[in-house]
C-alpha cells in the first residue's frame, strides 16, 4: 500500500508541475475545475461565515484530478473543530444532495488553510462517473467533527482548457 501511495504522489506531482502559475497536464484532454464553497450551499444550509475555494486540473486520458482546496473561517476560536475529510458527491444539482462518491480522509485543526490533493488510481472516477463529473453535476464538501455532513459545499464547474 505504501508503494502505491508513493507512486500516486509522484504521478500527481508530475502532472501538477507549474510554469508561470499554470497547471499543466501530461497528456490527453484537460479540464479546469473550480468551485466556490460556502455553508449556504449545503442542503439544508447552515448559517456560518465558512467559505472555501477549489481549483484543479483534470486529465481525461490519465483520469487524474489534482486540486487545491483553500478554506477560511471554518469555525470560531471559541468553538474549535477539526477537519476530518473531503467528500465528493454526485450527480446532483446545486439545490439537491447526491450520493457519496469518494471520501478522502484528511485531518487539519486550522480554521483557515489550504491543501493539495488528488484523485487517481483506485480513487479515480469510473467511466460512468466521468460523464457526471465533466457535466458539472458533482460537488465537494469539507467535513469536520462538529459538521460530519459538511461545513461547506461547492458545486464543481468543469471547463475544457
Describe the structure in your own words.
The protein has 161 residues and is mainly beta. The protein is 14% helix and 42% strand. The strands form three sheets. It has a five-stranded antiparallel sheet. Strands 7-6-9-10 form a four-stranded antiparallel sheet, with no helix packed on it. A hairpin with a 2-residue loop joins strand 1 (18-19) and strand 2. It is globular and about 50 Å long.
Short description:
Helices cover 14% and strands 42% of the residues. With 161 residues, it is mainly β.
How does the helix and strand content classify structurally? Answer: mainly beta
As laid out across the biggest beta sheet, the strand order is 8-5-4-3-11
- Helix percent reads 10-25%
Largest sheet: 5 strands, antiparallel
How many β-strand stretches?
A: 11
Order of helices and strands: HEEEEEEEEHEEE
Given the C-alpha coordinates, what overall shape results?
Answer: globular
Proportion of beta-strand residues: 35-45%
Low-confidence stretches: 5-11, 15-20
- Cα-atom radius of gyration: 15 Å
Oligomer: single chain
> How many H/I helical runs?
2
Rounded mean pLDDT is: 87
State the separation between the terminal residues, measured CA to CA: 33 Å
Amino acid at each position: 500500500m505504501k508503494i502505491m501511495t508513493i507512486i500516486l504522489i509522484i504521478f500527481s506531482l508530475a502532472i501538477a508541475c507549474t510554469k508561470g502559475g499554470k497547471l499543466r497536464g501530461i497528456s490527453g484532454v484537460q479540464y479546469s475545475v473550480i468551485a466556490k464553497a460556502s455553508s449556504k450551499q449545503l442542503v439544508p444550509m447552515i448559517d456560518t461565515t465558512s467559505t472555501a475555494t477549489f481549483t484543479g486540473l483534470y486529465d481525461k486520458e490519465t483520469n487524474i484530478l489534482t486540486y487545491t482546496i483553500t478554506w477560511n473561517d471554518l469555525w470560531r476560536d471559541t468553538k474549535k473543530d477539526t477537519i476530518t475529510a473531503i467528500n465528493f458527491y454526485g450527480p446532483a444539482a446545486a439545490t439537491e444532495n447526491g450520493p457519496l462518491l469518494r471520501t478522502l480522509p484528511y485531518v487539519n485543526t486550522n480554521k483557515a488553510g489550504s491543501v493539495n490533493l488528488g484523485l487517481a488510481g483506485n480513487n479515480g472516477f469510473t467511466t460512468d462517473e466521468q460523464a457526471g463529473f465533466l457535466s458539472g453535476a458533482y460537488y465537494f464538501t469539507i467535513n469536520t467533527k462538529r459538521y460530519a455532513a459538511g461545513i461547506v459545499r461547492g458545486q464543481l464547474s468543469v471547463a475544457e482548457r
